[in-house]
Structures are given as C-alpha cells and as structure tokens.
Amino acid sequence: RSKPGGVKGDTLIDIGSGPTIYQLLSACENFKEIIASDYTDRNRQELEKWLNNEPGAFDWTPVVKYVCELEGDREKWAEKEDKLRKKVKQVLKCNVSKSNILAPVSLPQADCLLSTLCLEAACKDLNSYRAALKNISSLLKPGGHLVMVIVLKETYYMVGQRRFSCLYLEQESVEEALREARYDVQCVEVTPNRPESTFSDFEAVLSLVACKRPA
Ligand SMILES: C[S@@+](CC[C@H](N)C(=O)[O-])C[C@H]1O[C@@H](n2cnc3c(N)ncnc32)[C@H](O)[C@@H]1O
C-alpha cells in the first residue's frame, strides 16, 4: 500500500494505467493533478467510463473502502471517489517504447511518475526495459520521484482465460537499470507471492520510490 506521506507535488503522471484506478487512490491525496495513460484504446475507454461514472463502469467501491480504511477512515470512500474523478485531468495514449511516450502530446515535466506492473508487461527484454525506463524519465523533473510496483521473476499472468507474457526481472537488474537511468532508490519493499496463487508465476512484488538526480 502507498500511505500518503513524503511524495507530494502538483502533477503526477501514471504510466500504463490499464483499466485500473487502485494505484491512484492514495496518490490523489498528495497531488493536485493526475494524468493517466495507457497503450490500448480499450483500457483507456474503461478508465474513462469509471471517471465519468458511466453505467457499466467497473465497481471499485470495495477497493476504495479498503484504501480509505488503511488511510484511517473507511467512511470517506465516496469523497475519495469524487476527489479522484476531479483530479484525473486527462487519459492519454502512451507507448513506453517511444522516446516521446505521449506523442503527439507533450507535457511539462511532472513532480512524480507512477507506474505499476507496466514496463515488465510492455518490454520483451532487459535492453528494451532499460530504454523504456529512460523514455518515461523524460517526463519527470530532476529531483522528482518515480514510484513503481514491479513483479519479480514473472513469466506470465492470466486475465480471465487469456495468458499474457511478462519480462522475467530480478531485483538487481531493476536497481541497476534505475541507476543507469540516473535514479537514487530511496525506499524498497519486497512482498513475497502467496504459494497458492495460480493467476501468475511471479515470485514477489517490488515496490519502490526513487528520486531522479539533477542533470
Ligand atoms: C499488467 S497491466 C498493469 C495495469 C495497471 N497499471 C495495474 O497496475 O493494474 C500492463 C499495462 O501495460 C500496458 N502496456 C503494454 N504495452 C505498453 C506500452 N508499450 N506502452 C505503455 N503501456 C503499455 C497495457 O496496456 C496494460 O494496461
């Protein structure tokens, strides 16, 4: 979980948001504006559906209540949903394999980048992973924070009956790629997978906060 705390600012860009909002629930307490992004039209449409409170949108209420409980007040869930809907200003097309990942849109550098479970799904090998990390970093101010949630040693994950492949990553390779992209890792947490999980073969989840070194 990400407790609202040290990482704050005006703008946060979430890279590879998918159709999900769970990763933005605590972030929306600490940033004035959030920009979400994803490669696929379907994921962006699904996200827009929830943001616009449209019929048929996924019901995130149990997750929102849980996050509110972790933050100290489960009853604030409706307020948080409203807040998040107001704070997400745009949902943009993105491709982490391009040097301008949001092309044709260009944005001022943000105070924070968030990316959960994206680069390992998007990149086919370690070289493209390192390149993608550099590509996304161009959207971050020097001194800004990168917050990532990464699955370690995963080769596949299931969404319903569909199987998606994933880049096998070890913690050391991630940390080395971050150093090479000029980050100082400030905080790392490794959560082991439950042995009984069947939707994926990942070994652990790595959550980290890194700071982009000044140029
Ligand atoms: C496992 S999902 C993670 C989604 C969400 N961030 C989460 O935490 O559940 C991986 C996401 O990466 C996106 N993706 C795949 N290739 C991409 C690329 N080249 N550029 C940006 N996003 C990409 C997919 O569309 C998908 O939404």
TrEMBL record:
GO molecular function: N-methyltransferase activity; S-adenosylmethionine-dependent methyltransferase activity
UniProt GO BP: methylation
UniProt-listed PANTHER family: NICOTINAMIDE N-METHYLTRANSFERASE, NNMT/PNMT/TEMT FAMILY MEMBER
Entry's family note: Belongs to the class I-like SAM-binding methyltransferase superfamily. NNMT/PNMT/TEMT family.
The name this protein goes by in its record: Nicotinamide N-methyltransferase
Keyword Cell inner membrane found: no
Alphabetical keyword list: Methyltransferase, S-adenosyl-L-methionine, Transferase
GO terms for cellular component: cytosol
